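User: Before I run my own analysis I want an independent prediction to cross-check against. Here's the chain; please return only the structure tokens and, at the end, one sentence I can use as a sanity check.
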Amino acid sequence: MHRYRSHTCGALRESNIGETVRLSGWVHRVRDHGGVLFIDLRDHYGLTQCVVDPDSPAFSLAEKLRSEFVVRMDGKARRRPEGTDNDDLPTGKIEIYVTEIEVLGPAGDLPLPVFGDQEYPEDIRLKYRFLDLRREKLHQNIMTRVEIIKSMRRRMEGQGFFEFNTPILTASSPEGARDFLVPSRIHPGKFYALPQAPQQYKQLLMMSGFDRYFQIAPCFRDEDPRADRLPGEFYQLDVEMSFVTQEDVFAAMEPVITGVFEEFAKGKPVSKNWRRIPFAEALRKYGSDKPDLRNPIEMQDVSEHFRGSGFKVFARMLEDPKNQVWAIPAPGGGSRAFCDRMNSWAQGEGQPGLGYIMWREGGEGAGPLANNIGPERTAAIRAQIGTKEGDAAFFVAGDPDKFWKFSGLARNKVGEELNLTDKERFELAWIVDFPMYEYNEDDKKVDFSHNPFSMPQGGLEALKSQDPLTIKAFQYDITCNGYEIASGGIRNHVPEAMVKAFEIAGYGEQEVVDRFGGMYRAFQYGAPPHGGMAAGVDRIVMLLCGTTNLREISLFPMNQQAMDLLMGAPSEATTKQLRELHVRVNLPQK
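Assistant: Structure tokens:
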């Protein structure tokens, strides 16, 4: 017999009854039933009930076992007594009558419990992550992640893509976040950067004639942590294709992402025909460029009904042509208590309040706004937005560029409070037609809105003749249930257009050559039209595991202060290390 096990703890079935077996694993739980010890033995594959009674030669040792001891147990597989089957376990019809026990690894007092999924302080969970990962739910999440990545690879290969690995030590690039810098010992005073994304390398692969690239790529960004973005590093399904239009990218990737969601959705419906929503429409209807489409509420511009009305606050605002009034319908929200609660919530968000109209029995509008604008205008608003008796609508006014985010939060809040958001499905969509540029109020200049390497719609001619702030890019996101899970674009592969695009954002041609020399040179020697995208592996796994915190689907994450409590990183370098790197530490004064 094998030194440690003849079977795993998830393998034994009724067909094994009568066999002498050997199992090794962790003591999950010990129960004493009238002097008979029941030990649940756990390994990666499952759990088996083991029984030790006072007649067993192993009984005296079994009495000393505690949770998380690692042990080997020999015994005979037998049928569980009638009425004691556990249908929740694959091994639930059998048990092992134990005759021999060997302690392979004793365990001290546990700093956190492994049995059960009760809440525990995060700093303890991360410091003892090796114990935390033994907990059933977290262990399952990690294995789900493994299977999702396998599924992605299988589906990408099925679409004719090839997996390439790109460098980890590279040059700094303006991807939108801070780089992690790595000092070079061989080249004093110079630094490598960890890649924020393999953007330039995957485009260079297209210049090299490889046609269809993908990679489960690690990416590194020195930005502040938050629940839906891991500090330091994350993984993405990185994709690039040659000789493609935007439609070709959509046709290749939609089945991959849909298929992954369908495979791991646990029966929840997944949208098959993805909606395509222009960026400007997404902001106007949903107040978000990553709208939660499970929420049926769509906002509408109702400015005309308030222009010149008796509600002077809105009427005066609308004298400025850039200002608008948006309505947020609230089906079933026509109670004073709910409207007052939403108004209080808005004040908690730093707003002066949230105006509303309620529609009473017979269709009559009620509330301060209705009283101010009169029944005719109130009825016109109702006709436009489609509210019924018992419904309400909330109103946000001002410059849409400044209030759209708040309006989106209000839409989400109404959907949650009134149980309008269907939590039991996955709603995927493309957000398209992103603006190429935006105006940076701080620096008083035009900046790239998103990816600087995207092809502008209209090409070089648009860059030469259009107002930059009106140019749209061949750029797109995939959204799911209120999260951005992928972003991509058709690339600007024309050298003259690339220089012009960066010139508009304040970069001279020499600066483009200095910062993106490899790609700029490659474009001079026959560059194919190409495009691609990158999907966030971590966010996809998070959604499919039904959690809202990426630390619940990652093996060894950092905490909210970007510290690895398990390994003690970041840590101070020794004087010898700093000397070899020609680096001096200049700490901020306290």
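Sanity check: The longest strand covers residues 20-33.
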